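haha ok so turns out i had the wrong file open the whole time. this is the CORRECT one, sorry everyone. sequence first:
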Amino acid sequence: MGRVRLSVVFGLLTLVAGPATRAQGATASGRLLTLPDGSTLYLLPRPGRPVVHWATWVDMGRVHEPPGTQGMAEACLLASLGGDARTGTADWDKERVLLERIDDVGRELDEARRKGADAGRIAALEERLDGFRAGLRVLQRPLELRERLATLPVVDLEVRGEVEGSWLVMTTATSRLGELATMMAERRERTVLRGFHEALAEVRARLAEAPAEPFLAEARLQALQVHPLRGARGLPRFVPWQEARSFWRRHHRPERIVTVLVGAFDADRVAETMRSLFTAPAHPGERPPPLPVEPAQPGFRESFLELGGDPRLVVAWRVPDGTARADLEVLGRVLADGADSMLARALRTEPPLAATIEAFPCHPARMDPCLFMLRLTGTEWNRARYEALLAEGRKVFDRVREDGVDAGLLGRAIDAWSAERRLRDADPRELAMTIAHRLALTGEPAAVPPDAERCQALAKALFDRRRLTMVSTALDLFEREAGGEGGGR
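then structure:
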């Protein structure tokens, strides 16, 4: 019998319904504050080496980008480290004029390309654009702030964009935290997004490298109806610097920012310092437009995707409101973690009906209903084996709805969850990011631990066919099979 690989994959995203409301004051082990500018700060002192891990989450991600501006959110955050009107430039007034001219020529070049203008016209516009960019390079010193950060030193500086937001994460010595906070406050208030176009090109080049397995993300969108990333997003277009600044001002607002500090520091002194620095709202004025609200699922949904590679199947259930993330993670373990999991036992045939089974128990998170997702990769699938897989899986979920999950498996899954949580929390950098994301999504810094009774109740409620969306690549398989190209893969 072939070896079956089974695993559980956990993301950072946390279930939430609607905007988070954050309580003030002391929590179980840290201190939660709203700074004078309206942003959220959480301080978690921990004994040890005299270092501080800084993690900032901003509600500014891919879902907020207008069509054609792919990569803009992350590029803005990268460019925010390029300095302001006083640092990073030899002459800001001259630089701004060049940036505005680049905007004008870039828009004109974009339009000429869309309309199929002749090669001479396009070459002339490109030459003008290159000339303005050459002038910028003489004036700009976009690495000046990063060089100042490096002298503190700041290490492990990371900027990363995600679907629903963006990260700025770094580590510094406790003795230099005040200087770092000063630089971050100035960056938040005064950045001119220097180097935006270069940052956007970098981000888009990375996005263009298609992930090895895009199927899960596509399946997620199939399970939703009004997600901003559904359907055609349009070809990437030129994004003017002024448009990027407007986007930044709408989305990089204090009430959309959470910062968590974990490390060896005096919480009272750090709180006083942060209050004194983050005083004025960064960009008062226009707020971002609301994201669409996902309507209720009308019932069972099924769709097919045409993707190469091994045949795959995703089953996704909309999770009941108020469900604890930990309970979902534990159910994922019970169903798909290890050779003794409930699905592994059910699909244990010769050859196995599934080569891999993975649980994604909390995906996505904020603006959409949370989805509990299982992904199965086929082995020697044909129509009969695919239907056998569905039939055996249906038996498992029908049994869970009637009787709950295996109590022994559940107890071991809760123990494994607790052990993994302790390991994860031992890494202060990862802990800072986890708390920041949790605060942004739920308003609470602490995770709700799993509970066996709650898990059993959730299992009986979750696996309702009316909550289910099923997405597979099997249609292509069946069409090839009908065309006489073979009976399986």
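The radius of gyration is 25 Å.
again sry for the mixup
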